[in-house]
Fold this protein.
Amino acid sequence: MTSDKQDADHSNKAGQAISSPCIRNCCLDHNDICLGCYRTLEEIRHWVESTAQQKQNILALCEARRQGDRKG
């Protein structure tokens, strides 16, 4: 049996395997969305503590924002 802390540590380690989408072109628009990676300011701030599943969700949102930006 594992403790909650061990579970959290495991989730964070698994989450760290997913690379940040940051391309070092950081500039926020009026909605606090980075024009380089399409993450919100909150998503950027919490990336390192996010689980793998949360990071996958963020990446999906980034892709949707990027696609929407291309249409606009």
Observations:
- The chain has one domain: 4-71.
- Residues 4-71 form one domain.
